[in-house]
Amino acid sequence: MLLLNLMEFQFRALLRLVNLLRGACESVTAKDVLFCTSFIDHTAGETCFSITQKFNLTMDEFSDFNPNLNCDKLFVGEWLCLLADIGH
């Protein structure tokens, strides 16, 4: 069941990415996977919302880049993805 949920998440994330890349030359398929290309480590006092504001991300993008993240239980030193790219 966990594998199915992960695949569903990846598919939904890719669909959002397709919308962002609409009109681009590169086509995106459901077989593509997102790979994180930019990280930060969480520091005390930051929230998911403050991080999205600081790095100009939507909450949907941030959630897609960090699928297993629980914003209510962030811990200091946790690595968070800020940018993901399509892997083939």
Brief characterization of the structure:
InterPro entries: LysM (IPR018392), LysM1-like (IPR052210), LysM_dom_sf (IPR036779). The protein has 88 residues and is of the alpha+beta class.
Helix and strand arrangement:
Elements: H1 2-20, E1 33-41, H2 48-54, H3 59-65, E2 79-87
Antiparallel strand pairs: 1-2
- Tell me the overall shape: elongated
CATH architecture: Roll
Order of helices and strands: HEHHE
Strand order of the largest sheet: 1-2
CA-based gyration radius: 14 Å
The helix content, as a percent range, equals 25-40%
CATH topology: Membrane-bound Lytic Murein Transglycosylase D, Chain A
Main structural class = alpha+beta
Mean pLDDT: 77
E-strand count: 2
Could you describe the largest sheet, including whether it forms a barrel? 2 strands, antiparallel
Tally of DSSP helical segments: 3
Strand content: 15-25%
Corresponding CATH superfamily: LysM domain
Low-confidence stretches: 1-5
Total domains: 1
Distance between the termini: 25 Å
Quickly name the level 1 CATH class. Answer: Alpha Beta
3D structure, described in words:
With 88 residues, the chain is of the alpha+beta class. The chain has a single domain, classed as Roll (Membrane-bound Lytic Murein Transglycosylase D, Chain A). It is built from 3 helices and 2 strands. It has a two-stranded antiparallel ribbon. The radius of gyration is 14 Å and the shape is elongated. This is LysM domain-containing protein. Residues 38-82 form the LysM domain. It holds the Pfam family LysM.
